[in-house]
Amino acid sequence: VQLVESGGGLVQPGGSLRLSCEVSGTGILFSWYDVGWFRQAPEKQRELVAQIMSAGSPNYAPAVTGRFTISRDIAKSTVDLQMNSLKPEDTAVYYCNIRSQVADYWGQGTQVTVSS
Q1: Direct distance between the N- and C-terminal alpha carbons of the chain, in angstroms, rounded to an integer
Q2: For 8-34, what is each residue's pLDDT tens digit?
Q3: pLDDT of residue 81
Q4: DSSP state letters, 1-47
Q5: Which of 1, 12, 53, 80 has its CA 20 to 30 A from that of 36?
Q6: What was the pLDDT predicted at 71?
Q7: 50 with 94: CB under 8 angstroms?
């Protein structure tokens, strides 16, 4: 199983970015996985940003609620994160994650920097 993130970069405060995660190797089982985006800022622990459980609605960290939207395309095996109204405190490496009861997979991460 491989996860490849894209879409990170440098953006000004108030701007938007869309992160995408392409998942390969799960085949038709992709829909069985919980999928999510995490982030890790310098000298901080990795934290959950947004998540979609295999049979549930999305849930978000309080810091991003109302600004970020997570979505999953079962047919394409992708997980996207639309980020609006970005703030400097959103600066971090963002990681895509899929997990089941017996497996846990991570992407390599993509840098998001919010700065003027």
Answers
A1: 37
A2: 999 999 999 999 999 999 887 888 899
A3: 98
A4: -EEEEE--EEE-TT--EEEEEEEES-GGGGGGSEEEEEEE-TTS--E
A5: 12
A6: 95
A7: no
